[in-house]
Amino acid sequence: MRSASHEPRVDRRCIRGRRLFYCKPKGCSKSASKKVPEVPKFTYREIDISFRQCAYPSAAEILKLSEQINLPPSQIKAEFSKRRHSYRERHHLPKDTLIHPCSMPLFQALVTFVHSQQAILKSAVLFVSVATLWWTHLLRMGGQSITEQIYE
Question: Which stretches hold the DNA-binding feature (predicted)?
Answer without folding.
Answer: 32-91
